[in-house]
Amino acid sequence: MTVLHSKFETELQVRPDDIDMNQHVHNSRYFDYVLAARYDQMERCYKMPMEEFIKLGYGWVVRTAHIEYKRALNLGDRFMVRTWIHEVFSDGVEVRFEISRKENGKICCDGYFAYTMINLKTGRAETIPDWIVARYSV
Amino acid sequence: MTVLHSKFETELQVRPDDIDMNQHVHNSRYFDYVLAARYDQMERCYKMPMEEFIKLGYGWVVRTAHIEYKRALNLGDRFMVRTWIHEVFSDGVEVRFEISRKENGKICCDGYFAYTMINLKTGRAETIPDWIVARYSV
Amino acid sequence: MTVLHSKFETELQVRPDDIDMNQHVHNSRYFDYVLAARYDQMERCYKMPMEEFIKLGYGWVVRTAHIEYKRALNLGDRFMVRTWIHEVFSDGVEVRFEISRKENGKICCDGYFAYTMINLKTGRAETIPDWIVARYSV
Amino acid sequence: MTVLHSKFETELQVRPDDIDMNQHVHNSRYFDYVLAARYDQMERCYKMPMEEFIKLGYGWVVRTAHIEYKRALNLGDRFMVRTWIHEVFSDGVEVRFEISRKENGKICCDGYFAYTMINLKTGRAETIPDWIVARYSV
Predict the structure, then answer these.
(1) D interface test, pick of B23, B30, B31, B74 with most D CB neighbours within 10 Å
(2) Contact D91, D115 (CB under 8 A)
(3) Which of A73, A92, A114, B27 is the most exposed place for a label (fewest CB within 10 A)?
């Protein structure tokens, strides 16, 4: 059964401290942009912010990160971070993302993150309860 | 003669990568918030963005930075960065700032930055032309 | 023809500002550790530092980054960043890396970066001259 | 009574991700260099690492930070961070620092940090016990 998940969007702006010696956004900061968008969307779109996971004793760790760089973002640029759940595993999810320049909609980079849900006490992977899967199946 | 300069405001939001092991915004990031606000206000409020200085062969370097920390910002917080020119010297300016939590207006930190205008070719301090002083005397 | 490239190693230490709210090294900082190791090894091991590429009008941009996270690094940890050229293309290279904790040699993360060599003036991909390929064929 | 405190030194190296669009170390990173040196020296020189404070239920927060910039550090530079306790208050300390380029010993920046010791449970300032003052009176 194929479940199609919604794509959500967060608008952000490049900060001067994101720019590196090559005069564009430092490669590793795109990572942080996706992280910022996920936190925003977990709360605003899925109605289950990270704080709620933590209260339940759950955390999320990144297992794999993959980014394809296409066009650099520059000083002052506004951009959209679109993310969506591509696949749900018993103990994790694969989240795909696309970052595009707001001005012209052109893709700057895309890729995916595989996250594992862990039990904060043991630090070990945990099966995601059905009710959480349901909450994230929008 | 005392010149009173306008106070300008930029609204920003804490990014998850700004949070450090103490669970609040890392001390040095407030620096970057002031920098982001200045770039925004140079363009939006003074109508003379950093790019224009660079085209003219000018740059700005920080000579002194001073911050008084009062209350920490936390994950997801929205905040206002208010900055204003406190004094203009022949080759620089002292900019004062206040960062306050948007939700309740309480001051999180305040302080000042002394900047020197340099000639990008020589790297040396340069007298600020009158027309630039005028443009920043709002 | 298979060319086997040398593996080089750089020792680094976690800085307190690398630690995030989860009390271990922030995911995107591993990226920066690999970057630091490459700069060190370009100079020390390949005898052709980044500055030399820039003088020749060349630059390197990241096209793809891929990281598999295994074990987190913590405050104060010393670690080894091992990198090697896996494949050379006409206009780029695939660099593989492994980061391991110094104390016990256990792998913390591994992955690869695909870099493209560009002409700094045009910003476009450039064929890597044979003499540079030779210099990096150690 | 004047107590003269020892000056301790930590050697560090600029990482490529510390460099900003002005091609030298980003202003706020000097902050992080001092932090890294303090963590190193608390453990190595005072024989009381941050972890020990935390186990005792104590933490340290920055109340004031002040930096005077003199000469910028550049890509690859090795530098020394010298710090010493200038004054001990009932609930805090003023730590002074100097960062100098290793190659020529020239001062890059100096300044001070005022830290307050807090009780991690209440978040409030706490009187520093005599035995800790003694330990830091080297």
Answers:
(1) B31
(2) no
(3) A114
> Who contacts A90 (Cβ-Cβ below 8 Å, separation ≥6)?
A127, A128
Of residues B10, C64, D56, B90, the one with CA closest to residue A15: B10
Total count of residues recorded for chain B: 138
Give the Cα separation of D30 and D36 in Å (integer): 10
Q: What single string gives the DSSP state of each residue in A66-119?
A: EEEE-S---TT-EEEEEEEEEEE-SSEEEEEEEEEETTT--EEEEEEEEEEEEE
> Which chain B residues contact residue C29 at CB under 8 A?
none
Q: What are the residue ranges of helices labelled H in chain D?
A: 29-44, 50-55, 130-135
Chains in touch with A (≥3 Cβ pairs < 8 A): B, C, D
Per-residue pLDDT tens listing for chain B (138 residues): 456 789 999 999 999 999 999 999 999 999 999 999 999 999 999 999 998 999 999 999 999 999 999 999 999 999 999 999 999 999 999 999 999 999 999 999 999 999 999 999 998 999 999 999 998 888
Cβ <8 Å between D17 and A26: yes
Q: Which residues of D touch C43 (CB under 8 A)?
A: 76
Structural domains present in chain D: 8-135 (3.10.129.10)
**Residue C122: what residue type?**
T
- Model's pTM, two decimal places? 0.95
- Whether residue D107 contacts residue D70, with contact meaning beta carbons closer than 8 Å, is answered with yes
Q: Return the bridge partners of C12, or none.
A: C79
